[in-house]
Amino acid sequence: MSEASTPPTSNILRVSSQTRGTAAIVNAEGDLDMATASMLSKALADAEAAGPERVVLDMSGVAFLASAGMTVLAEHHQRCQELGVPFVVVNPNRSTLRTLELTGMSDLLTIVPGIDHALA
User: Fold this and answer.
1) For the segment 4-63, what is each residue's pLDDT rounded down to a tens digit?
2) Hey, which CATH number is domain 14-119, 1.20.1070.10, 3.30.750.24, 3.40.50.150, 2.102.10.10?
3) What is the DSSP annotation of 81-112?
């Protein structure tokens, strides 16, 4: 009798949102790729629709950032500009930050080391 091998589990994206003062904070944890980008995009759109004074995306738990995820970041950065609301990315890990730097996205986005910096 042979045992079936269990495929490795992917680091599925988990998204949560909260409000702190006049800021909408979206937390993302896991892989941000083609399979999960729409989930983050919806959470950010919902946050923007609530009319906050700033939108904060906490990426400290994002383990992997693919081009689809970068597209979401660029789209919502643009949307927040149209709304006149700052879009702030918080605490991407080292590999995620490196991806943002290599693609030039770090020049487009406001990236800060922590939530307190984003809310200041």
Assistant:
1) 444 445 578 999 999 999 999 999 999 999 999 999 999 999 999 999 999 999 999 999
2) 3.30.750.24
3) HHHT--EEEE---HHHHHHHHHTTHHHHSEEE
- What is the number of other CB atoms lying within 10 angstroms of the CB of residue 49? 10
Q: For residue 41, how many C-alpha atoms fall within 13 Å in the half-sphere facing its CB?
A: 15
- Please measure the distance between the N-terminal and C-terminal CA atoms of the chain and give it in whole angstroms: 61
Q: What is the distance between the alpha carbons of residues 13 and 32, in angstroms, rounded to a whole number?
A: 6
Residue 46: how many other CB atoms lie within 10 Å: 13
Give CA–CA dist 15/13, Å, rounded.
6
Tokens of 30: 């896991």
**What's the CA gap between 100 and 70, in Å, rounded?**
8
Instruction: Give the residue extent of every domain in the chain.
Output: 14-119
